[in-house]
Amino acid sequence: MELRQLEHFVAVAEELGFGRAAERLEAPEAEVGRRIDALEKELGLRLFERGAPPRHVRLTAAGERLLPEARAAVAAAERVRETAEGIAAGTEGIVRLGTSRAFADRVYRALGALAERRPRLRVRLERAPQEGRLAAVRSGTFDAALVRTVCRADGIALYPVWTEPLLAALPAGHPLAALDEPHPARLARLPLRLAPREANPALHDLVTAAVPGWTPGPPFTTLAATLDDLASAAEPSWTVFHPVVPLPRDRRLAFRPLRAPRVPVSLAVRPGRLAPAVAALLEALTAAADPMPPHRTPRPRPAPAQAPPPCTARATPT
Question: CA 162 to CA 181: how far, in whole Å?
Fold first, then answer.
């Protein structure tokens, strides 16, 4: 049984004639007759009583019973076509986005705006560590992923969406804590508890480049333990980290965004033309950080002509 046969059956039943059905279907009348004959043979049922003249027909009892089922099948097929067209146009479907809790505020704002413009497009959030997010994009498990600090990665195209400040934590009573946005250079003489480079090469290189002549401080362990040590130590020191949600509530500590450097956050996708739904998500994410003209899609970050900024993945042109 073919869907086209059911479409012809419904048309003949509703028009009560092969000629009118042929006009509606924009098909030769002989073809309509052949499809009805084939359907009756397939089902082993007579669906129409041919009258005089033969172009006029009426449904048999079997045809009357099968008509609502045929209509339902044709309608279901039409919904499949419409849904497929919506997916191809990016107005509906599902986008699997790899993310982390640290991006939650901007992501939820972007998804709210996207839902207003494309209510039938769903974004399913998938949480995973950053390297896991990149691997899932490469394998096709995720359609896209938000990543921080990455400037190049094998088999990945990167679209910048926003930048974030690094956060400095220092004793609340220290004079530099009175500044709303201390410049890293002013913190250079204060001992810095910095995560070792092997633990986070991108952050380490970003901070050391921004704070020339920095003073090494006590070792950085975990963020929670380092903050606790920093708050209780007799000698003042400071540490720096990516924004986390929520920040610890400790009156002994002051948290200040650094004026520089800014940390890039990008949407990682597989190379090639962006799927329309992913392009719509990219536009919403970018707009959640900085307003931009509608219907404008950012270009992927080109490979730099000079030495690239610190990356968390092996350097490979994208």
Answer: 19
59, 72, 172, 243, 294 from 75: Cα distances, Å: 20, 5, 67, 50, 35
Give the residue among 5, 16, 9, 10 at the shortest CA–CA distance from 57. Answer: 16
- Whole-prediction pTM value? 0.70
The secondary structure of 191-242 as a DSSP string is: -EE---TTT-HHHHHHHHHHSTT--B-SPP--HHHHHHHHHH-SS--EEEE-
Burial of 307 (0-12, 13-18, 19+ CB in 10 A): exposed
- Distance, in Å, from the CA atom of 256 to the CA atom of 235, rounded to the nearest integer, reads 19
Instruction: Report how far Cα 129 is from the mean position of its chain's Cα atoms.
Output: 16
Tell me which residue has tokens 């380490």: 204
Look-up of token digits 């220290």: 174
122 in helix, strand or coil?
strand
Residues (pLDDT < 70) of the chain are 52-55, 245, 289-318
Distance CA 56, CA 20 (A): 10
The tens digit of pLDDT for each residue in 256-265 reads 988 888 889 9
Other C-beta atoms within 10 Å of 262: how many?
15
Task: Note the pLDDT tens digit of each residue in 183-232.
Answer: 888 888 999 999 888 888 888 888 888 888 899 999 999 989 999 999 99
